[in-house]
UniProtKB/TrEMBL annotation:
UniProt source species: Asparagus officinalis
Annotated ranges, domain AMP-binding enzyme C-terminal: 171-246
Pfam families: AMP-binding (PF00501), AMP-binding_C (PF13193)
Domain annotation AMP-dependent synthetase/ligase: ranges: 38-119
Keywords assigned by UniProt, alphabetized: ATP-binding, Ligase, Nucleotide-binding
GO MF annotations, alphabetized: 4-coumarate-CoA ligase activity; ATP binding
Enzyme class: ligase
EC number: 6.2.1.12
Annotated protein name in UniProt: 4-coumarate--CoA ligase
Keyword Transcription regulation in annotation: no
Catalytic activity field: (E)-4-coumarate + ATP + CoA = (E)-4-coumaroyl-CoA + AMP + diphosphate
Family statement drawn from the similarity comment of this UniProt entry: Belongs to the ATP-dependent AMP-binding enzyme family.
Gene3D superfamilies for the chain: 3.30.300.30, N-terminal domain of ligase-like
Superkingdom, natural source: Eukaryota
Length: 264
């Protein structure tokens, strides 16, 4: 809705009659979306009396686990707030399950009375996400700062594995979206015999843009470590997304393979 307001679609239906807006489906952390943060700042500049706040929860948690309460916490744009009463949370090394220190990135685990008991009729899926101590493995790459605020970085399963390094696609997407000629961008893992996977970018250019592949790769290369560089680029008319606005990466992976096979 925020984007609709900014582009003029919902000027007459939203903020004039709203005192606050809460978001919880798409990360707006500094790591996960520079572009979305900029969009929210422009929204708040246009509607200074509307409070924007974030929250975090899953279907499996049956409700919120973290939430920004009050004006002060809501001002921490990029954070999904602090832990809610009755809940527990920790950031762990996803390969060992060992708890990490504040500000270290790892998988978020949560526990509490609202956490589901399991998936009906699917013990295998239940045991994969819930351990014997009742901790729910969210699959989200996050960190909690020294003040207890949660920041969502990306989905663990979406990380690109390049020569043993883990590359968050969201970080690259939002570097790309800062370019004036790029409307939207999505980054996926592309199979590579030597590296295992390499980052591949799908780009929606502005009309009449002459932006080329080499320029895009150079743009990113100047701002990231060598293992995080974009290695392939494909220009498309649109980025496939689901109803909540999340990028449908599997569809892009299929498209990447189709484009590759068509060149053979």
């Amino acid at each position: 809705m925020i984007r609709e307001v900014l582009v003029g679609v919902a000027w007459r239906v939203a903020p004039q009659r709203s005192s606050g807006i809460a978001a919880g489906s798409v990360p707006v952390s500094p790591f996960a979306s520079i572009w979305r943060l900029d969009m929210i700042k422009r929204f708040l500049a246009r509607f200074p009396n509307v409070r924007f706040s974030q929250a975090y929860g899953l279907t499996e948690s049956t409700g919120g686990v973290f939430r920004a309460f009050g004006p002060e916490e809501s001002q921490r744009l990029g954070s999904t707030g602090r832990l809610m009463a009755g809940c527990e949370a920790k950031i762990v090394d996803p390969s060992t399950g060992i708890a990490l220190h504040p500000c270290e990135q790892g998988e978020l685990w949560v526990r509490g009375p609202t956490i589901m008991k399991g998936y009906i009729g699917d013990e295998e899926a239940t045991s994969a996400i819930l351990n014997s101590e009742g901790w729910l493995k969210t699959g989200d790459l996050c960190y909690i700062d020294n003040n207890g605020f949660l920041f969502v970085v990306d989905r663990l399963k979406e990380l690109i594995k390049y020569k043993g390094y883990q590359v968050p696609p969201a970080e690259l997407e939002h570097l790309l979206q800062m370019h004036n000629d790029i409307i939207e961008a999505a980054v996926i893992p592309y199979p590579d015999d030597e590296a295992g996977e390499v980052p591949m970018a799908f780009i929606v250019r502005k009309p009449n843009s002459t932006l080329q592949e080499a320029e895009i790769m150079e743009l990113v290369a100047k701002q990231v470590a060598s293992y995080r560089r974009i290695r392939r680029v494909s220009f498309v008319d649109s980025i496939p997304k689901n109803s909540t606005g999340k990028i449908m990466r599997k569809d892009l992976m299929k498209l990447a393979m189709i484009k590759t096979n068509s060149k053979l």
